Amino acid sequence: MPLMTGSGRRAATLVLAVGLGLTACGGDDGGTETPTATDSTSSSAADTGSSAPASPGSSAPAETEAVTVTAVDFDFELSEDSYSAGTYTFEVTNTGTMPHDFIVERDGADVAGTQVLEPGASETIEVTLEEGDYSFYCGVGQHRANGMETAVTVTA
């Protein structure tokens, strides 16, 4: 094996340092996220695995209810039309021809949401809904103003 000269060692050290620096700086594919009530589960966020108590005085965790959300152009198709307070997993798929997201809003504040989903993309978020009024809407461009919003009342 040939010995490296001083300049060869410096070049090898520089290549190694740049590679390590890029590795340390990279790795986050998620971009910016909309704040969520609980962590979302997707390729860009981790699952906390937490759940709410089943009922007062009970130590068993409540079931998380799955809701399928299909984003089509200027509309959401939801597998549920009534909601009781509890934890829900929203499985959002964009079947439209343009980008969409899915935002959960309460009292004018966003409490959970997906990333912007390109056509064909999916993301799952977990949200704990408390009793009250919510809006599920698309925050992309003028989609909400064009009717891509659903009002929901969560009961006790």
TrEMBL record:
UniProt-annotated stretches for the region Disordered: 26-64
Superkingdom classification of source: Bacteria
Keywords: Copper, Metal-binding, Signal
Classification via Pfam families: Cupredoxin_1
InterPro entries named among the record's database cross-references: BlueCu_1_BS (IPR028871), Cu_oxidase_CS (IPR033138), Cupredoxin (IPR008972), EfeO_Cupredoxin (IPR028096)
Segments forming domain EfeO-type cupredoxin-like: 59-147
Protein name in the entry: Uncharacterized copper-binding protein, cupredoxin-like subfamily
SUPFAM superfamilies, A to Z: Cupredoxins
Secretion signal span: 1-26
Keyword Manganese: no
Organism this protein belongs to: Geodermatophilus sabuli
Gene Ontology molecular functions: metal ion binding
